[in-house]
Amino acid sequence: MTTSRTLRDRLVDRLVAERAVTSAEVEAVLREVPRELFLPGVPLELVYADDVVVTKRDEDGRALSSASAPGLVADMLRMTRARPGQRILEIGTATGVNACYLSRLVGPEGRVYTVEIDPDFAEGAGRGLAAAGADNVVTVLGDGEYGVPEAAPFDAVEVTAQAGDIAAAWLDQLNPASGRLVVPLTLRGLSRTFAFRPEGDHWVADEQLPSGFVPIRGEGARAQRGIALLGGDEAAELRVDDDQPADAQALRAAFAAPAHQEWTGVTLPAHDRSLLHLDFWLAASLERYGRFVNVGPSVGAGPGPLGWTLPFGTSATWDRDTVAYVTLRQNGLTDFELGVWAHGPRRAAMAADLAAQVRHWDRRRRGGPEPVVRAYRAGTPDHRLAPGRVVDRPHTRMVIG
Ligand SMILES: C[S@@+](CC[C@H](N)C(=O)[O-])C[C@H]1O[C@@H](n2cnc3c(N)ncnc32)[C@H](O)[C@@H]1O
Prior knowledge:
By secondary structure, this protein is an alpha+beta fold. It contains 10 helices and 19 strands. The model has no long low-confidence stretch (mean pLDDT about 90).
């Protein structure tokens, strides 16, 4: 029988080889902690797969809690930069395994405070942490929106649920000179984990990675609007931030009519990460930006409006009665060509505009740095913000520059 130790080493060897783990400290804790202590009853092969293990779903089957995929956990630990002696706040304890990794990184002189909103997890996490000997972890049952003020300041706050905003308490409770905030945010429909550090009167993200987490619950929960545009096996919806106007009925009517297709001549090899760069760049450039997301069973199944785009959707824009989105078609054996499909009365003009943006990105921006995200407190006047696309949320003004 393959032992936990062997499976763990095999997983970490693979993550190191794929450069998903690049920090020696993170590698060491991944090799030390027996993940099965936090996932009782889950077969060892699944415990040590580089995949998420969902541990609770709602009545519609949507994940409410999980142990995140080890590769993503490793990336976030690296972004958190936890060091011996530090004090870390984690939001979203779930199984407790990440709190245990943090506990090893900060060592006996450090402390980890981890907050979980769901009472179903507190006990199990506590048992796992005790069995792993993580006695420098304090588990708190409550809404992470408020942090743990009595234990502040923290050297880092690591949020492990998908947030729509940066809670004021997280910023208030960070060390003002050096505290790092690692948080998965949904911005204009795009879901990325950002690592922020303080810079004067605001925070700037010095790292980011594409990711998706279970949504944050409680006071900070934020619904995303989804406008169903296609039904059946290819069901797809347009996800828009609720501060962006969109007439669902008019856009559905537009979508029922055939598309105008415009191909850009811009090509990419399969699995090219520059598509992520294009998405982010368009999110910053377009007045109205959202994600057209496949929600039917044929995700990534092949040609068709969304078939070849990433499983987590494609960039879209719209006006009152016309909608356009970026798509791909196969070009030769390994490459894809970017195109734009548009539906509605102004489809030809909107497709031409969006295709021009894609060509502009290809000529001028492709391969360049990612747009930089800065977070300011709500109420910061416009003239104090860096240039860029402003996304206003209850607690923060985010600028994608
Ligand atoms: C993806 S899981 C966390 C993964 C985990 N840290 C690990 O070790 O892999 C997200 C967790 O956040 C919790 N959560 C959601 N909203 C929360 C909130 N407002 N405060 C605290 N926990 C929350 C969920 O109940 C869920 O258990």
